[in-house]
Design a protein that fits this description.
227 residues; 8-stranded antiparallel barrel
């Protein structure tokens, strides 16, 4: 069973928020193999409700409980709002090695160190982002760093990134998030609709160093062993 927490340093909940739902999926298209992630937090004030807390206001949106609770919960996802997000993990030129997944870091949608702005990103708008986020409205997430480690009941994922409150008109990545997920299980690489089965099989063979670790079930290549 997947569990974990997500933190937004400086917000009204220093202990973070429980993760209510997490999905680690993938897809295979004519460019290669992709990872997709979907994370939903519990309600921002779930711990307050359980403890009988209040919603005292603080200065500034980032520190104001009533602002956060107005937006209920966070969704950080490459799949909720689009079908072509996520990040490329294997191509014919650089095949995906499942054995190297453990401990390796993926850096996705990077930003320069120090002060960074939305205009520093590649692409024109949020439609080009690998991950979209609903935080205090539809904001912008970038500079993701993801590490997977094997665990007894699934992978352990450490995920960090930077946030700009673009819904409120900000353009600077002033804030960050970090998430720790336990028990994450990869659902496999879904074959893009319209891709012939023989082409999909040939693509898998060249886009991973270990195609025998995957078996086809319906329209998906499911791992027999990963990491």
């Amino acid at each position: 069973m997947t569990s974990g927490r997500i933190w937004f340093p400086g917000n009204p909940w220093p202990d973070g928020h429980a993760i209510a739902r997490f999905v680690w999926s993938g897809r295979l298209d004519d460019r290669g193999l992709w990872f997709d992630l979907h994370l939903e937090s519990a309600a921002y004030d779930a711990a307050d409700r359980a403890a009988g807390g209040d919603d005292d206001d603080d200065d500034g949106d980032w520190r104001a409980r009533n602002v956060w609770t107005n937006y209920h919960r966070c969704t950080l996802s490459s799949t909720k709002w689009r079908s072509d997000g996520g990040f490329l993990v294997g191509t014919a030129a650089a095949p995906f090695d499942p054995g190297q997944l453990s401990g390796g870091e993926f850096r996705v949608d990077p930003l320069p160190t120090g002060r960074a702005m939305v205009e520093d990103l590649d692409g024109d708008d949020d439609d080009d982002r690998p991950f979209n986020v609903y935080l205090l409205g539809h904001d912008t997430a970038a500079d993701h760093r993801l590490r997977f480690q094997p665990g007894p009941r699934g992978a352990q994922l450490s995920w960090t990134g930077r946030l700009a409150l673009t819904y409120a008109g900000a353009s600077e990545f002033r804030h960050t998030f970090s998430a720790e997920v336990s028990g994450a299980r990869f659902t496999g690489f879904e074959i893009t609709p319209g891709l012939p089965p023989d082409v999909a099989r040939d693509l898998l063979a060249v886009c991973t160093t270990a195609p025998t670790r995957f078996r086809r079930i319906g329209a998906r290549f499911v791992p027999t062993r990963l990491g």
